[in-house]
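Incident log, structure service

09:12 report received: a user says their structure output differs between two submissions of the same chain.
09:20 pulled the input from the user's history:
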Amino acid sequence: MKRSTFLTGAALLLGAAPALAQTAQPLRVRGVIGDFKDGVLTVSTSKGPVKVTLAPDARLRALAKFSLADIKPGTFLGTTAMPQSDGTLKAVEVHVFPPEQAAQKPGEGFRPNDYAPNATMTNATVSNIAAATVEGVQNRVLTLTYNGGEKKVVVSATTPVFTYVPATRADLVAGTRVALNATQGTDGYTTSDVTLDKNGLDPRS
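09:34 re-ran on a clean worker, output below:
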């Protein structure tokens, strides 16, 4: 599913080229691959191209569709969501961690997300699943429990749900959407983790 919202929030992270050179803070980069050559990934963003060098041991992963029905109590997942007036969160997307990652509970907790103003990210374990009808549409309400708290997240039948599968450098071709964290070093930006769109899904988290 390719949507223009892929680049939403990029302006909060990426300034003009001079600003990039001055900051030592990690950057969340979302965009479309313009080129990948000699280990350097050029990502086209809404503010222009950003060059990032892949670490030799960089982990590459692609998105793959996952069934909402397969989410059970005990599943460890992450979700980008927007706050609702009733105190719940409405999922923008849900990503289910593969078992080997889930065992480590990566990024467990609740925090802001740069997807959009007021967006959040929750990485937590599903402790309960309930049904809810909102404006005549059947939804699922996931209770997500993490160390120190819990959140209720509403997931509709149209919410993108995916998991991660291994990818290779051969998948880093022009036109592919990617999301990554870039760290500034003496020779520019580097990354050790890239999520890419190989199956028609947007990396939003």
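09:41 both user submissions now match this output. Likely a transient worker issue. Closing.
09:42 reviewer note: The chain has two helices and twelve strands. Helices lie at 17-22, 99-102.
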